[in-house]
Design brief:
This protein is α/β, with parallel strands linked by helices. The protein folds into 2 domains: 263 residues, TIM Barrel, CATH 3.20.20; 198 residues, Porin (Beta Barrel). Helices cover 24% and strands 34% of the residues. The strands form 2 sheets. Strands 9, 10, 11, 12, 13, 14, 15, 16, 17, 18 and 19 form an 11-stranded antiparallel sheet that branches. An 8-stranded parallel sheet has the order 1-2-3-4-5-6-7-8. A hairpin with a 4-residue loop joins strand 13 and strand 14. Helix 8 packs across helix 9 and helix 9 packs antiparallel against helix 10. Bound molecules: zinc ion (2 copies). The site of one zinc ion (ZN) has 4 residues, from loops.
């Protein structure tokens, strides 16, 4: 889920902003966009949004504050955007508000025009606020619509006819807590919006959905809106969450990991409310999935050894560069520890010596070594409360290879990179964690062979058998790809 509009920077969250964010994450919120209100708050807004990878923000001036849009405000937005391109994902919120009329209409309109231009200049989507100003907002937006302008009408509360015009103008429509109110007339509109244009938001701290109506709203409640919209559209909450997440991630160009989460989002989140049980409305703060934070595991995988051979003394005259590929079954064990809930540290060992060969590009059998690797790695797990979680990490490996007719052993050290998916299955006595991982290991430096590295009939062998004085001298650089499947246990003891 993405809460596309949440004023997490305002003072109502000063006391417990971190807890509010933690609750949101544990309820399955993958990202939150914080729109701006006024220039004097930009610095504070950015300091909040820059604190967590779960947060992005908009920059812009709300129609209530149109009088605060000064001659240098556009330049300030450009400058701050330039310094915070990874955090600032939208221009907003901007628009018109004739209900409160805090600023004269003409001033609101002028500032809206200017900010739409700015959005096109910066190639950012806009977040549009509209209250009792349907006609003017749409006509101004259309004036600027050159097929490049994109964005969302947030907190949509107008008629189905108006929604159609907004869609025609190329915009997304986002719904908030008022869809859950008894008197809501938005159902008709919610039904016909195409699935690729609909989004959800809380507009926290305002607009809390039922059953929290009248209280402070917070991003973890965005699921109530997803639930209500799913009900109106006669689809599942999972489908609604997937569609709205995908739409928000692509409109606001949110970090591609989020898009990855969508693939795993249909798995139940631990903190998600069970809507079947009407009384259960409290969102609990979750415990870490791994009870004792320490686990042990066994792995099975395949060690694909990619060797780059360089012959130094022209023993192979026809080709002095080869690539050798060999695949060997690997087995091992590891121990894991969580210092904080989103980082796993791992120490592991694997060995591979059972041989099965692939090929070389020089018509020779591959060089096959036996390997023993000792790995120290970390994994970042951005969404650790899911049933299935993505991770990526790095580390260092000590690789010891035994090779050649003389069984020489060389140990090299090098970085590793790893990505994968892990699940967690609860049992009364602990958690079982199956994991599928792709790991690449880059032992640094070349090994130098001065005897036949293949150890069987080959043209290298020929080379020094015919002329005993001349031995093949070659350097070999190696990359190890070790995809593995691991089963680990995090016991309760
Ligand atoms: Zn608004
Ligand atoms: Zn707002």
């Amino acid at each position: 889920m993405i809460d596309t509009h949440c004023h997490l920077d305002v003072e109502q969250f000063n006391e417990d902003r971190d807890e509010v964010l933690a609750r949101a994450i544990s309820s399955g919120v993958e990202h939150i966009i914080i729109p701006a209100i006024r220039p004097s708050d930009f610095q504070h807004l950015l300091s909040v949004a820059n604190k967590s990878p779960y947060l992005s923000c908009g920059l812009g001036v709300h129609p209530h504050n149109a009088s605060e849009f000064e001659s240098d405000t556009a330049d300030m937005i450009k400058l701050l955007y330039g310094e915070n391109t990874s955090t600032v994902k939208a221009l907003g919120e901007i628009g018109l508000d004739y209900y409160y009329d805090f600023a004269p209409k003409s001033q609101q309109q002028a500032v809206f025009h200017r900010q739409l231009e700015l959005a096109k200049e910066l190639n950012l989507p806009v977040i549009i606020h509209n209250r009792d100003s349907d006609e003017d907002v749409l006509s101004i937006v259309k004036e600027h619509q050159d097929e490049k302008l994109r964005g969302v009408f947030h907190c949509f509360s107008s008629s189905p006819e108006y929604a159609e015009k907004v869609l025609d103008a190329g915009f997304h429509i986002s719904f908030t807590g008022n869809v859950t109110y008894k008197k809501s007339t938005l159902a008709e509109c919610i039904q016909f919006i195409p699935e690729e244009r609909i989004m959800i938001e809380t507009d926290s701290p305002y607009m809390a959905p039922v059953p929290y109506r009248g209280k402070r709203n917070e991003p973890s409640y965005v699921q109530y809106i997803a639930h209500k919209i799913a009900e109106i559209r006669s689809t599942t909450v999972e489908t609604m969450i997937q569609q709205t997440t995908k739409n928000a991630a692509s409109l606001f160009a949110i970090f591609s990991l989020v898009l990855f989460f969508i693939a795993t989002d249909s798995f139940s989140q631990r903190g998600r409310i069970d809507f079947e049980d009407e009384k259960e409305t409290d969102i609990e703060i979750l415990e870490h999935p791994y009870p004792k934070l320490i686990g042990i595991g066994a792995l099975i995988g395949s060690n694909t050894i990619v060797d780059n051979l360089t012959f130094l003394n022209g023993c192979r005259k026809d080709r002095d560069q080869w690539v050798s590929l060999a695949a060997i079954a690997a087995f091992g064990a590891q121990i894991m520890y969580y210092p904080v809930e989103w980082i796993q540290l791992e120490a592991g060992f694997n060995t591979s010596s059972h041989q099965s060969s692939l090929f070389t590009n020089a018509g020779e059998p591959p060089i096959i070594d036996s390997y023993r690797n000792i790995d120290f790695a970390f994994k970042l797990i951005p969404n650790q409360y899911g049933r299935i979680n993505f991770f990526a990490g790095s580390g260092v490996s000590f690789s010891s290879a035994t090779y050649g007719a003389n069984n020489e052993t060389v140990t090299r050290i090098g970085p590793i990179l790893n990505v994968g998916l892990m699940g967690n299955i609860d049992f009364s006595w602990g958690v079982i964690v199956p994991s599928a991982e792709f790991r690449v290991n880059f032992p640094t430096g070349a090994r130098r062979f001065t005897s036949n590295p293949i150890g069987r009939e080959s043209s290298i062998y020929e080379c020094y058998r015919n002329e005993p004085e001349q031995r093949a001298i070659l350097d070999v650089n190696t990359i190890l790809a070790i995809p593995r499947f691991t089963i680990s246990i995090f016991p309760k003891f």
